[in-house]
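Example 9 (inverse folding). The structure is encoded as follows.
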């Protein structure tokens, strides 16, 4: 097509639609590109994450019974096998008559880690504030299914109304130092309620085979206040201390286990608050340390076991219909109460502030979750052992990342797992190293061909999601469908990016990794506050759109390290966050090592403008 003919393609619209005929001078090549370069090379394989070659907890969950308390017959005990590297139980059977429940029996195998474990509790309880003591009391005496609901933030009131959950523990009684108070409420709520009962039933069902007693009886590790008189149990919890040490082991923490099973259940049906809820679960566990009742290793064991138990139950075919009904009913009720829909619920769920949502600070949640994964313990073994993903663990993410298939969710879990070598966490299957907070932020690395297909018509995360990890690897990302996927990380994957449908939103300068970017269809949207860097080549075909939002001069500019080949399609320039471009000013929107071809149309929202192509990019002049 000649330049004159190309210019005639411009048409009028509510915003100015520009042809490629402005600016550049006679020496600038404005000829269309007749043949597009090829898309980034398909790696030729999809990542496979095999099951570990050991007996799977999800296949043996029913063995976690108090009548089975040895590692060879109880899957729960086996899940916590990493503790055997630190502590040798005195006996390996349910008979506790030969165990006092006090230090001096059993053998500490890693004295440094054991000392750090108990000293952590000494320090935490010595520094404990009055507010922390109150929180520790509430999380101890309230049913865990009730206490963790505040992790829902703005959705808490609607959830409590739907579940009809009650508690009799509403504060610290004046005589709590001498009287033990038990919660007389109904835990997760009313299972018979016609609107929300399925949710309550599901939460209760996810605790099947969930006892920590078999593991406590097997490992026989004393509570921290029995190891050291310097551990200061919260005074209001003195009456809650067991008078029978032989039946009161510390590892793993039962409260931590129950709390984490409950938050995983709630996060399954309300995944918009997935990260906040699991952060709340780790907070409950930390309160067990602040109370003086448990040590860091105890609560780490409780979390690890809870993940396995939840996965065993969520994968159980007997619960298939219940989990789907609970998911549907929870969302129907909460959306009705909050006057939201599938596409507005997420925003509502995060509309709180620090004044009314203790988990409104995402960065703080992430830091706290990661800290509580290891509690500052050093790596005591090699830190470079590849992560394993337990069979069935992928189901934990099936509502949080619903547009991925099961194998992709396994790949997410493997790519976000913690390094090896930390105490307790190197269990045979890999439960200990799962970092669910990071997994909810999508992939940590691309291996092979990663094809993501989103569907805006289905709403929720199918329509829009954000990945916030720093994504590495040699794989390739391909986006299809009609939804929007936003990337926030400082990414470095090498295999390139192909957009065939939907919208890929680049929310950081390094969002698109180090490879080529190929906009074959759909939209590439740059909303970063800096320059969007494309490490390789950039190609846009006729069916594609590139959209740049400038919140200030230079923000969102697409900087291509290689060649920009523009076969056609649309470029749209928007202005946001109150930024108003000055008339007569020119703004670079595309820079490259070299530019070939021109856009079929250029749309500048709200302004008359002229495109000025150059040999290495495109500038837009604002005319008024």
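The amino acid assigned to each position is listed next.
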């Amino acid at each position: 097509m000649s330049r004159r003919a190309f210019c005639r393609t411009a048409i009028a619209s509510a915003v100015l639609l520009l042809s490629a005929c402005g600016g550049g001078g006679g020496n600038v090549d404005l000829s269309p590109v007749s043949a597009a370069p090829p898309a980034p090379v398909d790696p030729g394989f999809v990542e496979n994450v095999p099951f570990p070659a050991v007996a799977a907890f999800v296949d043996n969950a029913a063995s976690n019974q108090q009548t089975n308390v040895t590692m060879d017959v109880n899957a729960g005990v086996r899940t916590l096998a990493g503790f055997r590297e630190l502590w040798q139980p005195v006996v390996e059977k349910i008979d506790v008559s030969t165990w006092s429940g006090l230090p001096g029996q059993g053998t500490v195998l890693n004295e440094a880690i054991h000392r750090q474990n108990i000293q952590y509790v000494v320090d935490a309880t010595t520094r404990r504030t009055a507010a922390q003591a109150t929180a520790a009391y509430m999380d101890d005496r309230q049913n865990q299914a009730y206490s963790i609901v505040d992790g829902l933030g703005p959705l808490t009131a609607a959830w409590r109304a739907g579940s009809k959950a009650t508690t009799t523990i509403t504060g610290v009684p004046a005589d709590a130092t001498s009287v033990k108070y038990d919660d007389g409420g109904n835990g997760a709520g009313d299972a018979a309620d016609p609107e929300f009962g399925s949710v309550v039933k599901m939460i209760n069902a996810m605790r099947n085979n969930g006892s920590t007693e078999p593991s406590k009886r097997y490992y026989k590790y004393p509570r921290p206040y029995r190891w050291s008189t310097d551990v200061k149990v919260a005074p209001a919890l003195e009456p809650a201390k067991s008078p029978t040490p032989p039946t009161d082991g510390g590892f793993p923490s039962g409260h931590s286990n129950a709390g984490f099973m409950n938050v995983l259940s709630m996060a399954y049906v309300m995944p918009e608050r997935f990260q906040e809820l699991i952060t709340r679960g780790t907070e409950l566990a930390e309160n067990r340390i602040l109370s003086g009742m448990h040590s860091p290793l105890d609560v780490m064991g409780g979390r690890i076991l809870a993940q396995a138990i939840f996965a065993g139950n969520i994968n159980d075919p007997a619960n298939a219909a219940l989990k789907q009904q609970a998911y549907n009913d929870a969302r129907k009720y909460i959306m009705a109460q909050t006057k939201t829909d599938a596409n507005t619920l997420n925003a509502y769920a995060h509309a709180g502030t620090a004044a009314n949502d203790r988990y409104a600070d995402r960065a703080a949640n992430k830091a706290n979750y990661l800290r509580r994964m290891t509690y500052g313990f050093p790596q005591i073994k090699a830190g470079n052992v590849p992560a394993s993903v337990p069979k069935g663990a992928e189901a934990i993410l099936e509502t949080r990342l619903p547009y991925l298939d099961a194998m992709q969710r396994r790949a997410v879990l493997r790519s976000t797992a913690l390094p090896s070598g930390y105490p307790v966490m190197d269990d045979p299957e890999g439960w200990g190293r799962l970092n669910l907070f990071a997994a909810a932020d999508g992939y940590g690395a691309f291996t092979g061909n990663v094809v993501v297909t989103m569907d805006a018509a289905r709403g929720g995360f199918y329509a829009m999601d954000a990945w916030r990890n720093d994504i590495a690897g040699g794989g390739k990302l391909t986006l299809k469908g009609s939804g929007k996927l936003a990337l926030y990380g400082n990414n470095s994957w090498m295999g390139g990016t192909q957009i065939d449908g939907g919208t890929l939103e680049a929310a950081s300068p390094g969002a698109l990794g180090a490879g080529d970017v190929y906009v074959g269809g759909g939209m590439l949207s740059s909303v970063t506050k800096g320059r969007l860097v494309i490490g390789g080549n950039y190609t846009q075909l006729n069916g594609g759109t590139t959209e740049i939002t400038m919140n200030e001069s230079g923000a969102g500019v697409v900087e291509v390290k290689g060649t920009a080949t523009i076969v056609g399609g649309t470029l749209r320039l928007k202005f946001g966050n109150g930024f108003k471009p000055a008339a007569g000013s020119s703004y670079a929107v595309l820079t490259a090592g070299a530019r070939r071809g021109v856009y079929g149309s250029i749309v500048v929202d709200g302004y008359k403008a002229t495109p000025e192509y150059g040999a290495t990019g495109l500038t837009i002049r604002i005319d008024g």
